[in-house]
Write a structure and sequence with these properties.
336 residues; alpha/beta; Transcription Regulator spoIIAA; 2-enoyl-CoA Hydratase, Chain A, domain 1; 2 domains; 11 helices; 15 strands; elongated
Amino acid sequence: MSVFGFGNCGSPPRSALRRPMGTDAGVADFEMAWAAVDAVYPYLGYKGIAWRALHWSYRLRAVAERGAETLPLLTGLLAELRDGHVFLRTRCGTAVAPYVPPRMLRDRRTFCRKVVRRYLAGGPRLTSGGRFEYGVLGEGVGYLYVSAFEPAGVAAELDEALAGLGDVRSLVVDNRSSVGGNRAEVYRVLGRFIAAPVPGPEWYTLGKRRRWPVIEPEGPIRCTRPVVVLANGLTFSAAELFTDLMAQLPNVTVVGETTGGGSGGCDDDATGDYVLPSGIEIKIPTVDGRRADGTPWETVGVEPDVRVAQTEQDLRAGRDRQLERALELLGAGVRR
């Protein structure tokens, strides 16, 4: 169901990717990893990656090292994809990210929930499952922080938060530093913000075009009042899909920085999980996700309507400039 992250890494690899016979373990790991990417990764052409040309240089390294440096070699190979959805897991269970998108690095210290809480009248409240933090910013403006769009049940927690906020006149949905999640949960959450059905965006799995059925309004409470969505470089994956879909609504303004840029993922019938001969596991995206306009957000991210920079120094001073700009747009004063 198009999830983002490590799935069932014990699932069998494609038959075409069986372990090469009679080769050193390090070379076998390299060959299988290279072939997996070549078979399923959707963005080689989009990113202009000369994947077949890379085979020769990395194979020479694999042969020369004869397995002594398998993990660094694989990490370097997969980093060539420049994709924040690519992962390795060592035999001892440690997850390794070969590549972190630049905007994620830039914004890793520009958001702090403790600073946000200073703006909340009466402090924050948490939903029962802990995925939403909410409160009132003052002058009838509600606040919701979305931590993830997985596992199932996110929309039900949103209903709990909306009920707890009561009759606020406008809302800030804080989607900064959200780790992404499941496409289906994104659509269920979106259903709380729309008054009429909207078409689901398309995506491609192993090159095959797919489209979600129409996204329907749902939930006991629907928020069609003015909304500001906050986003930054750590808004990634399914959280970017949510940001883009919300941006299409006439009552929504996106404030902050361009999102991280990760539109890859996987589907239940194409998990992208492979166990290499040495026992190292790798995760390769098989899905090319698309925005509402039909284009990928891979590498480019989703741009805000109103760009507001925020720095680590702002947080040290106890200020959240992006949240303050949201309050200005909603006609509310700033209290800290």
